[in-house]
Amino acid sequence: MTRTSSVHPALIALGAVGAVGAAAAVWGIGIERYLFTVREVEASALPPGSAPLRILHLSDAHMAPWQHHKQDWLASLAQLKPDLVVNTGDNLGHREGLDGIRRAFDPFAGIPGVFVHGSNDVNEPSPRNPFKYFTGPSKHTSAPRLLDTDAMDRYFTDELGWTGLNNTAARLSVAGRDIDLFGVNDAHRDWDRLDDLPDAIAALGPAPAGTPVLGVTHAPYQRVLNGFIDLGADAILGGHTHGGQVCIPGFGALVANCDIPLKQAKGLSTWTHGDRAVPLNVSAGCGHSIYAPVRFACRPEATLLTLTARA
Question: pTM of the predicted model, to two decimals?
Fold first, then answer.
């Protein structure tokens, strides 16, 4: 008599799921997080008759000194010759992250730029339970180790010539025209001070007719986006979300780590408040925490955003 054996279907299914999970982990950890890309988009946001404005939107580098591939890629973006660089924070990802930031951003010296802080420009990252992000925006309960934020800010302002917009406003000359910008410090840590902005904007003095107005934030919380529209922003740029970082193909982000709708956690969309609707670009960022080295269905990115005149 011949004896035969068979594998239970449940075991086959379990093995298949395990194989898919292992393949996804290999892709997300070993491949996709290195697939840096430039997302090029266009939006009508400037006063009628304005010439196009090319903005390079950088965010969430979370830089560690050994991340040379990311540093080289960021440095290469200077060849795009944008009119303006907007950096929406979380540049540092390690106590010595400024070494990598210098290597990445040195080629941008002399190109007009602005920046705001994310919490990781101030506090050293720490291990987190990733499943807690599904319960809502992350909380901070322990005393963090502070980074050398002042050294980073001096590098941006003194060596690159960029302007800080943490809870303040500025008027820049960009491509032969004036642009008004305002921004807030990290809203995820409640460091934003929207009430300070009206006085900061008023201190700039009357703007020439047709001056574009841009709002800049690290974390795109709804209170900030609505406040920016009330203050007259023609377009808004933010980061923080990592685009969800680990997404489902065909669906998108599962978490945003703030209260923005998931469908707007990445990319160019329109934010509406009151009787105004303005372009909103949320960068998926080009980095990740050193404690969560993975990207899945959400490639690391920079955005080349071209703003054009409204009809």
Answer: 0.90
